[in-house]
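U., I forgot to send this yesterday:
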Amino acid sequence: MITEILEKWCIENSIDITDSQKAAFEKYAELLISWNEKMNLTAITEKSEIAVKHFIDSISVIKACNIKQNARIIDIGTGAGFPGIPIKIMRPDIELYLLDSLNKRLIFLDEVCRTLDIKVGLIHARAEEYSQKPEYRETFDISISRAVANLPSLCEYCLPYVKKGGSFISMKGPDGENELAQAENAIKILGGGKTKTSRLILPDESTRTIIEIKKLSPTPKKYPRRSVKISKEPLI
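Result:
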């Protein structure tokens, strides 16, 4: 079922998908369902919904954004690996890092990566802490997040990881453009600039807004602030 849904969407969107990639998504779904019985990874457990709401949703970024060859990407608040791992399956050339604050999720992700034989960096940390480390601050071509925080807060978590000329990609629902308007001040303060918005309709008729924010200048060293400060006093 997952193979058929993925194949149909990829054909309709002029994206190549190999048999080995389809097999990797099948294995990923099986692991997700199996592990979800012992730990809370997702509320979505039907294979057809996994295919659309997790896999196609994640790889829609490939359709909406131009990801350069061998891009260095960090997925902030990756959870069960979305959107990072599906993008890595489709684009094995990228150098991917997955960051999450819960170690039990990273144990699951390690199992996924070993089973699928893909090389990924796993980071157990809070996003606002690790971006202060020299080896991670402004060293990525792309930071990406499908997290549910508001966009001004996400910008503060994610833009510090992006180097000048790179992008922060935020995956939002149908109200994404309204959130972008609210985030204009945060984007400016944090070194962001030109934005691109893409609206996609997924096979279940839901709307996905993908917002790409270009990094034009370094993020001031005082950002990001502590998590409590970010949530209580967003840069709006």
